[in-house]
Amino acid sequence: ARAFSVPLQRPADCGAHRYFDSSRLACAPCGAHQRQSAGGSSCVCEPGYRMVFSNGGFSVTCEKCPENMSGVTQDGWNCISCPKGLTSEGNCKCPNNEILVERSMDGILLNEALCIRCNGSEQSFSASDASGSRCVRCEKTFIQVSKSCDCNTPNILTGGLCFLAHEGLPPKGIASVRFAQLGITLTSAWFLKNLQSSAFACWLHSNLTACQALGNMCVMNMNSLSSSSTDACGLFQYIFVSTARVGIVHSIPYWRHNLPWLYYGDQPGLASQVLEKNHFPTTFTFKGTDKDVKLQFIAASFDAAGNFLKWQSLEGGILQLCPDTQTKLNAAYDFGTTYQQSCKISVSKILLDFANPVFYDLFLEYNGGNGQQDLWAVPVLNLNLQYNEKFVNQGSNMNNWLLTRRFFLVDALSGKENDLRQPPRVIRIASKITISIRLVSRTQRGTIYPPLVTVAYTDVLIQNPETQTVMVSFTVSYEMNQSEAQIQTDIALGVLGGLAVLWSLLKTAGWKRRTGSSIIDLQTFFKFLLFYAGDLANVFFIITVGTGIYWLVFFKAQQFVSVLLPLPSQEEDFVTYVACAFSLKTLQFLHLLVSQLTVDIFFIDWERPKGKVLKAVEGEGVVKSTVAPVSIWRTYFIANEWNEIQTVRKINPLFQVLAVLFFLEVLGFSNLALMDASSSLTRSSESYVAPWSRILRFGVSAALWVAIAILQVIFFAVIYERFVEDKISQFVDLCCVSNVSISL
């Protein structure tokens, strides 16, 4: 058999003197005096050689430059004299603030390259651009500070900006970023370049983008709030405290002019006030217009440099890293629909799709009256909060939480150590995002508390991006205070449990009376416990069925939202009740089985002998007449009929199971157990399917089982036993006709 395999080669595997031939998907050698290009897919001449012919790939011809013209022009086609030296690539170089000129105004190549100094005087204020090919106006901070394009001492040059050295400047920032999960602290190239300049520009000039960039670096450093640190968050807090006089935005005390809103404040207990003191000023329904059943989330997005990008609606999967259809992604914001999405994503795909981080300030849009659309700020709980002495964003105690505002999905920027053009050493990914919607207690009009976004980040050390994967998830959950429902369940359990005790005592007393004993001994106590186990199992069954039907009816049938389904963590008591009912009922079954196996059944034939039979007396040689005995086959026949009616029921078990499965799977009643507001029995294959609710699944199944069982009992009692056959009555009639009694 012929093999269709080829070796795997990448451009990085080719080395300095080979290039990657895309037509062969393999490395190929370069010609004489040639080396691999920067992209790796062609060859270029070595320093000191000019191109004579080039057709791409290896089709390059190089020629050595003469000794008096050892430099090569920027385009690589000509030799030129370089009076101020050569670069490592063999091109001419010029000092700072000078531009390289290789051709005259009409395009004629010069024999000797010129380095023309940009005029930095007051009339021009020009300096060379980053490429060194043209003169442009120098940065305005240079002009403001030194009246020139130079930033000489004692002025401070940082991040390409010039600042006056005077008292009151923010302290020198720490350009390190800590990745706590990996135990790594590295010096970020992005922080090293922009941290100090952003802090100075924000403090001295109230530069909007600089303030936003400083806030973004604080978010990349996981909102650390250490009083002894001068990291990005420390510099932000320094400016925040020092600018109290400039005023606040929209009457929000935590939002200063010119600064981004990063924190809700560091007062203990503030989180519970933010999340529970005020209600969201609109109501939601399950059956109404789109605005009544949709959560209108909108986010202000910024890039890492602090530039405002745009307002973005979350519909369309902005925060969902897992790919899916548009319909399913938008279902995340249908009110009342519990949304869960999780998948594994390749690190290489993350680096490709999220090369530059985007930061989000999340709001919930609502109608504020008079046609004005207003926004409600959505708080963020960062589970990776670092360096904080007072707050721990873990657990359910809101008083220990520090709420923030801004977050990102992927940070592949702060983990770059030496060069921003190189891939990062570490990336940070929002691996778990949860939007929690909580219903106000005892509401009848669908009033909710402000939503909460909980974000958990994962630090990934880059080793082999092609094989590394990260598990990410996105969840929208709905919850309400279940304490009142739990109290009602406990009351019902207590009352019915007490009645079960009385009923078990009566059954125990009846058993003692039948045994003819009046002494309460250990056997009596165990008998009571066995009776009580069966009765308590019935109590748990009644409680669980009632609970399931209650949530099924009141959740699915409501128009204005007044109840929400328990979360999976809140269903633990319900699951415990079901387990108790099953265990206790199993114990009752074993007790019943043992009782049936050990019981003595007496069949008494009251039929008197009729007639006489002749019987020879052995040894005497005579024949005598005796009374004819009653045939034992009469008793055998009754016992056989008794045995046959042991499995007679009021319902047909096979029909019961098939009917329940028919209603659940064929007619679609199982869709009623989904954690969404829809009461439809059919779902489109293109629509999002919410996760199952264990309470609703039990409620739907139990309701169908009980309903079909009741219908069968009615059918057997009213129709079948009356017009077809009643085996129990027939057996009683048989015993009466046969004159046979049964005693246990």
Task: List strands and helices in order, with pairings.
Layout: E1 18-21, E2 26-29, E3 34-36, E4 43-45, E5 49-54, E6 60-64, E7 71-72, E8 79-80, E9 98-103, E10 109-117, E11 126-128, E12 135-137, H1 140-146, E13 156-158, E14 161-163, E15 176-179, E16 184-187, H2 189-205, H3 208-220, H4 232-242, E17 248-249, E18 252-256, H5 270-276, H6 290-293, E19 297-303, E20 308-313, H7 326-330, E21 339-346, H8 347-353, E22 358-367, E23 373-377, E24 380-382, E25 406-408, E26 410-411, E27 426-438, E28 452-461, E29 469-479, H9 483-515, H10 522-557, H11 572-598, E30 602-605, E31 612-617, E32 622-627, H12 633-644, H13 653-666, H14 694-723, H15 727-738, E33 740-743
Parallel strand pairs: 24-28, 27-29
Antiparallel strand pairs: 1-2, 3-4, 5-6, 7-8, 9-10, 11-12, 13-14, 15-16, 17-18, 19-20, 19-22, 21-29, 22-23, 22-25, 26-27, 27-28, 30-33, 31-32
Helix pairs in contact: 2-3, 2-4, 3-4, 9-10, 10-11, 10-14, 12-15, 13-14
Task: Describe the protein's architecture and organization.
The strands form 13 sheets. Strands 21, 24, 26, 27, 28 and 29 form a 6-stranded mixed beta sheet that branches. Strands 19, 20, 22, 23 and 25 form a 5-stranded antiparallel beta sheet that branches. The mean pLDDT is 85. Strand 19 (297-303) and strand 20 form a beta hairpin. With 744 residues, the protein is of the alpha+beta class. The radius of gyration is 42 Å and the shape is elongated. Among the domains are: 232-479, no CATH class; 483-595, no CATH class; 599-617 and 632-743, no CATH class. It has 15 helices and 33 strands. The two termini are 81 Å apart.
